[in-house]
Amino acid sequence: MPHEAIRVSELDPNFKLAVIVPEACCDITACFACGTCTSGCPIHAVYPEHDPRKLARMINLGMKKRALDSRYI
């Protein structure tokens, strides 16, 4: 499947700050794609094609529209 180009003009650098929940057990901005979230993700267990690391990466890059358009949210 071809990948769509990322347009810098479409990125929202504050998006990652908008999704941070102070009470959460982790900070999404600290993600370095170790895969721990994938191994414990109940959605990934049912839909193996879902990779929470990709979603975290989209959020950290500010890809708001693509992240919110994910069928797994």
Question: How would you explain this protein's 3D organization?
Answer:
- The longest helix is centred in the C-terminal third of the chain and has 10 residues, at 52-61.
- With 73 residues, the protein is mainly alpha-helical.
- The protein has one domain (11-68).
- The mean pLDDT is 85.
- The protein is built from five helices and no strands.
- Helices cover 40% and strands 0% of the residues.
Structural category is mainly alpha
Number of DSSP strand runs: 0
Helicity level: 25-40%
Please, how many helices? 5
Largest sheet: none
Low-confidence stretches: none
| Amino-to-carboxy terminus distance | 21 Å
The rounded Rg comes to: 13 Å
Question: What's the overall average pLDDT, rounded?
Answer: 85
SSE succession: HHHHH
The number of domains is 1
| Shape category | globular
Assess the beta-strand content as a share of residues: under 5%
Summarize this entry quickly.
This protein has one domain. It contains five helices and no strands. It is 40% helix and 0% strand.
Name its key features:
73 residues, mainly alpha, 5 helices, 0% strand, globular
